[in-house]
Design goal:
Pfam family, one: Peptidase_M20
Binding site for Mn(2+): 85, 87, 121, 145, 340
Number of domains: 2
Domain Peptidase M20 dimerisation: 165-260
CATH topology of the largest domain: Aminopeptidase
Largest sheet: 8 strands, mixed
Order of helices and strands: HHEEEEEHEHEEEEEHEEEHEHEEHEH
GO molecular function: hydrolase activity; metal ion binding
Mean pLDDT: 97
Shape: elongated
Strand order of the largest sheet: 1-2-6-3-7-18-8-16
Strand content: 25-35%
Keywords: Manganese, Metal-binding
CATH class of the largest domain: Alpha Beta
Amino acid sequence: MLRVQEHYEYLHTIPEAGLQEYKTAAYVADQLEQAGFSVQRGVNGSTGVVGVYDSGLPGPVLGIRADMDALTHHIQGKTVQRHTCGHDGHCAMLLAAAEASLQKRLVHKGKLKIIFQPAEELGIGAKLMVEGGVVDDVNILLGMHVRPIQECRKGEVIQAMLYSASAKITAVIHGMQAHGARPHLGINAIDGAVAAVSAVNAIHMDPSVSFSAKCTRFLADSGVTNAIPGEAAIVFDIRAQYNEIMKELRGKMIQAIQAGAATVGATADIDISEGCPAAELDPDITKRLGCIITDTLGEKACKPPMTTPGGEDFFWYVIKRPRIKAGFTGLGVDAQPGLHHPDMHFDVPSLENGVRIHMASIVEFLQ
């Protein structure tokens, strides 16, 4: 019996922000131990959990990863956590598949690692797990994410999710505060910030490759309305289809922000987050996952690889440990109105398809 809905119904009631997934981690760890896995809690001082089942026979080490954290929303004046990206579903699917894999004795060789990762939304969870040695012995690593209804319908599975690189750039523009009646004695930081945003918007790169850079936060306040502000803070969300394009975009962003601010005599202090890398997927694993989807759910269920501007910290595992062969699928659950929307909801029974894909993957790689 697959307990995916039971797990989901509980996990959905305890949403927790990144690195604060205490109840979630305790629940998945307890369930793994009851199923027969050897469990490591508190990986690298975090809330990460890993369950290991060793067949005792030679073979590959297969890791399957699910993320645990919820999102923080500000709703009607209150700050709340909600599972609006489906991570509760990811945990429920992997937990149900892990239990069934031992019940049905699906692991005939090698080792199975069930990885529950914290802080995906913060972009740091995967790196914490890597630094904790979780994937040092992993040969094949699989991930899965529920998809919005606009991309993939219930009963369908995208063979490979080609996520983009993403990062955040914060720039503090420094001018000089002055009286509103004597602006010539100061440097308006707002003017410098506006010029920086305009310079970023004028960046040109190869149009055949997807990339974007947009200002998502603009804060400036002198404290009064009759003085020009001496400081402004702006934040840019940047994305690129490939890691090498992201590197180029970052360089051009720095030049544009500094040059834009300089047009009015302002300066800029710039900080770039490491963000998430673009997808690095193994072609053979992707092909085999396509066969697994077709064999499990039917030929019409298997959808071709999809490029998305979304980011996913899963790919730090591959960047940090290049010998890992990775695959990442997208599960159709009719999620709507969209991921990260405060009222996001989806077809919960569709999670059973994800469990079946996980189990079939275990059979494919460990039998």
